[in-house]
Amino acid sequence: MECREARELLPAHVDRELGVREAIEIDRHLQGCPACRADYADQQAVRAAVRNHGTYFTAPGHLEDRLRTALPASAPGRVPPGKRSWSWLNAGAALAMVLAIAWSVGLYLTLPTTGDRLADEVVAAHVRSLMSSHVVDVVSSSQHTVKPWFDGKLDFAPPVYDLSADGFPLIGGRLDYLDRRPVAALVYRYRLHTINLFVAPATDGRNVVPQTLSRQGYRIVSWTHAGMAFWAVSDVESAQLNRFTDAFQERGAS
Fold first, then answer.
1. Of 228, 219, 225, which Cα lies nearest the Cα of 190?
2. Res. 95 pLDDT band, cuts 50 70 90
3. More confident residue, 226 or 90
């Protein structure tokens, strides 16, 4: 994919309107193109600013009185033609205002949350690594080789553990890109399945217990601990991914 085509698709990609194939292609392009990646980050920032800090209409307190006045009277009686026309005009304007507000609220409620967007990014990064055969940058089953490999490539030191004894051998690691920043991707195996564990500094210092969700047939477990945020993603059964998560957390606690 060329930059011209990628930039034409960026707005739709930010709004999650692309199909899976196009989303994977543009993610692959963003990974290798700093200029388009910067444009993508800018558009995401604008979208977040509009959502978090946009001005929303608040109906004034006298709106109910205006609506009652504008609606036709329920009591029988003849209304002068001029007054009847004016009342229906006001009623139509009020109805249009109410519909506009309802549409705006409905649109706001359908916007994806930050967690939804991040979950989609995690799945896209996992699929992208499998499709491009770019599963690892450093191939090693030793945590003492993989962990130092990230030195100088990231502004944080990701925890790396060998989980071979638990049935999840370490394959290696690579650099990836999530939530507008580089992250560490630790790669493990369970039988014939690949497990990507993405690691990045947490946005706050709170510890969050593991939370499980599914996207496009893939399972994700996310949690935060000791200032780090983790996202484990794979197509393994939920029980096995939870067992992997428990094993990783136990190593971190020991």
1. 219
2. low
3. 226
